[in-house]
Prior knowledge:
By secondary structure, the protein is of the alpha/beta class. Helices cover about 45% and strands about 20% of the residues. A seven-stranded mixed β-sheet has the order 1-12-7-2-3-4-13, with helices on both faces. A two-stranded antiparallel sheet has the order 5-6. It has a two-stranded antiparallel ribbon with strand order 8-11. The longest helix is centred in the N-terminal third of the chain and has 35 residues, at about 20-55.
Amino acid sequence: MNTYQFRNDWSAPAAERPPHRRRSRRGLVLVLLALVLLPVVFAGWLWFHVDSSIRRIDAFPDYPGRPAAGAGTNWLIVGSDSREGLDPEVAAGLHVGDAAGQRTDTIMIAHLPDSSTAPTLLSIPRDSRVQIPGHGKTLINAAFESGGPQLLAQTVEQETGLRIDHYAEVGFGGFAAIVDAVGGVEMCLDEEMHDTKTGQTLQAGCQQMDGSDALTFVRMRYSESTPRSDLDRVANQRKFIGALASEASSFTTLVNPFTDYALADTGANALTMLDEDGTGDLFSLAWAMRGISSGGVVTTTVPVTDGTAHNWDKKKAAELFEAMNTDTQIPEDLITQ
């Protein structure tokens, strides 16, 4: 067949085209259709899988004097030191000890604004002395142990005047598993970090931290590299959350279905959220927090009076909470790194 005849075959009516060419074109259309639909179907299934796998708690109850909703949306983010469900060998590998019960190793408020102001990630030192309803003035860390998420949320609301809209909690094992699911997270340390209490050491320089090293990094406060103790620890926690969010939302992660599934499945099984919180809420939080590493998120700690972080600077703290509650820019003198 010459070239002219070959080209005329494609312009001929369908009934006159050779059967094998009609089948070839149909096959190409089916392949292209599959390439378009499969990612959509996979994403939809993954969305449903995450939503159905997350552990749920009852919504925060109303109580007399509960703050009214302000501008934007507030998340209460909790890192629990619970060892529940951890295999002893896994716990040993994570160097988390064997303390019973559950306390809050990390307490943060993530504020997602309705306006064009930047999101805020605010750390609350766990040794802050506050009024816990029914328990008097004591460390805020005790609220979670005494009354779970509900009492912690009420305590945070009453102390800050911010109404909590959403809740996310992850334990030791879940945090480490999420880090491993994305293949580790790169962190650059200016100096060696050695914890005199646990004996764990992280070398200086840039390194890919796995779940165990990441847990060591975000918990370390008994070290020459953390002279401000808990204030340095919460600052490191915010840095790591930013790096983790950036890694999870990177192009290489998003286009890899195996990593996507591992991250989604691990994250869903590691998280506890409110009954009414959904995958879309979680995605909005994660997407906003990816800006921490690039400076697109304001990261700070509740202003305190001294290095023990026991007592808040009431005037500065009130100004900070008001700025968050009204979606206004936080003044530089209220930001603590």
